[in-house]
TrEMBL record:
GO MF term (any one): metal ion binding
Species this protein is from: candidate division WOR-1 bacterium RIFCSPLOWO2_02_FULL_46_20
Family per similarity comment: Belongs to the HupF/HypC family.
SUPFAM superfamilies for this protein: HupF/HypC-like, Radical SAM enzymes
Membrane spanning residue stretches: none
Reported cofactor(s): [2Fe-2S] cluster; [4Fe-4S] cluster
Protein name per Swiss-Prot or TrEMBL: Radical SAM core domain-containing protein
Gene Ontology BP term (one): water-soluble vitamin biosynthetic process
Pfam families: BATS, HupF_HypC, Radical_SAM
Domain Radical SAM core: 139-365
PANTHER family: 3-METHYLORNITHINE SYNTHASE (PTHR43726), BIOTIN SYNTHASE (PTHR43726:SF1)
CDD domains membership: Radical_SAM (cd01335)
């Protein structure tokens, strides 16, 4: 993962640039025609996104230099605390040792971990996941911004508060200008370098309109753009890639065909998967995953979800709790327990230790006020902040009482940076100086 700090290009071979950050080398795909060895750049999600003048780069690096190593040191220290395995049963100890030695865990091992209930054993699982996160990915943490530009949706997902059948919510569509204003604020004022553009399935925005939006944002600012507008069609995916989108956020929701059919009337899991496969083939970065705690879901289903996410080449795992919404057919179904969500996130790390970004979802934060702190200490390394203007975001009610719904962008950033600093983590895509005032 690349940091938000400027890196210096050390080598360019075909489309791959090698970039150095305080002595650490990373690689990224280069799509800039005029990139040269020695240039300073920002990279995001494995793409070089823009060059920056040397003087500006050097002054940012001076501010960061000491802090960079201090943060890494703190993270290293915290990730080694309490790894003793005294009194832990042999089977668990054996599985965790295998994970620590980079051996592939078998499905039976993962199912065993998914069945853990004992607090002490769970604590050891979370610590192991955090240790692996630190060992392979160091202290970087993705902080993407998300703009939810429309809550109109033609679909009737049985759990979702913005489903077409819910007549109780106030609907909104942001105009193109409103989307650009939100993007401008997120990028210029708050320093985001990766934006996710999300909406319900709303055909009012044709593929051409979505392409125009992506193209305009890319032309005005050099950022990495993920689209998250549901099934836009395989041709739509191609057009959006050509317009400059480089990431797709789309959960398959569940790998269980029967549950999928029951909760997505008129839709098929195969079609969802086809989109994800085609997106990867086109070169998109993939963020996918599923809902934890759906009615009828078993531990085996959760394992299958993790396997499917990996098979779909997810670069970021997004697994969050199902949260019952009163305006939906699943209003009376229970949400999962906090420990089951944390367990899934930690197991995702053991299952895909080396490269995976794993998200602490807003859904998890809605279920549990300490989700971010606990998730980040259990193997995860990504968060998303909502940069939708408040007058719209308050109506993006996919589930009730969404965490941070009342918070300004600045407040979300301050809280996030404060949590990250306390754990020695550095944001990868939020260009806010570590000198920025904290609350
Ligand atoms: N239309 C896009 C799509 O189909 O992926 C993106 C919008 S959709 C509202 C974004 C995500 O919200 C879904 O992938 C789903 O997992 C999540 N979501 C919707 N309702 C939810 C609920 N009640 N609990 C938890 N997550 C929910």
């Amino acid at each position: 993962m690349c940091y938000t700090i400027p890196g210096q290009v050390k080598k360019i071979k075909d489309r791959i640039a090698t970039i150095e950050y305080f002595g650490e080398q990373k690689t990224a795909i280069n799509e800039l025609d005029d990139l040269k060895i020695g240039d300073y750049i920002y990279a995001q999600g494995g793409f070089v996104i823009k060059k920056i003048p040397e003087a500006e780069a050097l002054s940012i690096l001076t501010v960061w230099k000491e802090t960079f190593f201090e943060l890494q040191e703190l993270d290293l220290r915290l990730s080694r605390v309490g790894m003793e395995k005294y009194g832990v049963n042999k089977k668990l100890s054996f599985i965790l040792d295998k994970a620590l030695e980079n051996m592939l865990l078998k499905e039976a091992d993962l199912l065993y971990l998914l069945d853990l209930e004992d607090k002490k054993e769970l604590a050891l699982l979370f610590k192991t996941a955090n240790f692996l996160r630190q060992k392979h990915l160091s202290n970087s943490c993705c902080v993407h911004g998300i703009i939810e530009f429309s809550n109109y949706c033609s679909q009737n997902c049985q759990y979702c508060g913005i489903a077409a059948s819910n007549k109780e919510i106030k609907r909104y569509r942001m105009t193109e200008e409103e989307i650009y204003d939100a993007a401008k604020q997120a990028i210029e004022k708050y320093g985001f370098q990766t934006l996710v553009l999300q909406s319900g399935e709303d055909s009012t925005y044709s593929a051409e309109t979505l392409c125009e939006i992506v193209k305009t944002i890319k032309e005005r600012w050099s950022v990495l753009i993920f689209i998250s507008c549901g099934e836009v069609g395989l041709a739509g995916l191609k057009k959006l890639y050509q317009a400059g989108a480089r990431g797709l956020l789309m959960r398959f929701e569940t790998s269980n065909q029967k549950i999928y059919r029951q909760i997505h009337p008129g839709r098929t899991l195969d079609s969802r998967i086809k989109h994800l496969e085609e997106a990867f083939r086109l070169g998109y970065l993939i963020i996918t995953g599923g809902l934890i705690g759906l009615p009828g879901q078993t531990r085996r289903d959760i394992l299958n979800d993790l396997l499917l996410a990996k098979k779909l080449h997810t670069e970021m795992y997004t697994f969050g709790p199902f949260l019952p919404h009163p305006g939906t057919p699943l209003a009376k179904s229970p949400h999962p327990e906090v420990k089951d969500v944390l367990k899934t996130l930690a197991i995702a790390r053991l299952f895909d230790p080396i490269n995976a970004k794993i998200l602490v979802t807003t859904g998890f934060e809605t279920l549990h006020p300490k989700a971010r702190e606990e998730g980040l200490m259990a193997g995860t390394n990504s968060v998303m902040l909502n940069v939708t203007p408040h007058q719209f975001s308050k109506n993006y009610s996919i589930y009730p009482n969404r965490a941070h719904n009342q918070e300004s962008i600045q407040k979300q950033i301050n809280t996030t940076l404060s949590i990250l600093r306390g754990m020695g983590r550095a944001p990868t895509d939020l260009g806010v100086s570590l000198d920025s005032p904290l609350p």
